[in-house]
Amino acid sequence: MKSWKRWTIFWVFLAFGPQLLAEEWPRYGVSKTGQKAKSEMVTDAELALWGIVDGCLNSKLVHYFYVLNSHAAVLELAGGKKVLMRFHGDCQGVEQYGFVHTAQNDKFCADSHSIRVLQTGDRCKVESLEPYP
After folding, report:
1. Spatial contact of 110 and 101, defined as CB atoms under 8 Å apart
2. How far apart are CA 79 and CA 29, in angstroms?
3. Per-residue pLDDT of the chain (133 residues; tens, 9 = 90+)
4. Per-residue model confidence (pLDDT) at position 19
5. Are 109 and 94 in contact (CB under 8 A)?
6. Alpha-carbon Rg of the chain, whole angstroms?
7. In 3-state terms, what secondary structure has residue 4?
8. How deeply is 93 buried, as exposed, middle or buried, from its count of CB atoms within 10 A (0-12, 13-18, 19+)?
9. CA 103 to centroid of chain Cα atoms
């Protein structure tokens, strides 16, 4: 494929990708408000398959992330598995600017860690880490 075609596809996805993902949120139990689907009950053994132990994820496993909306982001792990990271409330600016996080002892934990929104410096507490289809 020629270079200009690849860039065109990239920019189209960048412009319309969030809208396409918005149509898929309800399918995977992620509403625009970040509420969980009632039927979602995950055991500790299932969480461990995604590297989540005692509500914490080994930060060395995170290969890439993308923001779904102001309530959730997806962490793509080495090996292809994905983890849904939900924020407490509305995390303003995270969709526009992205975020960074700091792990302690290579662990990133729900309910005790937060992310920092780039550009604004605002902090958003992480509510949960859970397997993502």
Report:
1. no
2. 23
3. 444 344 334 333 334 444 444 444 444 445 444 444 433 567 878 888 888 899 999 888 999 889 999 999 999 998 889 999 999 999 999 999 999 988 888 898 998 899 999 999 999 999 999 998 7
4. 45
5. no
6. 15
7. helix
8. middle
9. 15
Q: Strand, coil or helix: what is 58?
A: strand
Nearest to 101 by CA among 119, 124, 120: 124
Look at residue 30 in the predicted model and tell me its pLDDT. 52
Cα–Cα distance between 51 and 81 in angstroms, integer? Answer: 9
Structure tokens at 104: 């302690």
What backbone torsions phi and psi does residue 99 show, to the nearest 5 degrees? Answer: -150, 165
Determine how many CB atoms are found less than 10 A away from the CB of residue 97.
14
Do the Cβ atoms of 61 and 108 come closer than 8 Å?
no
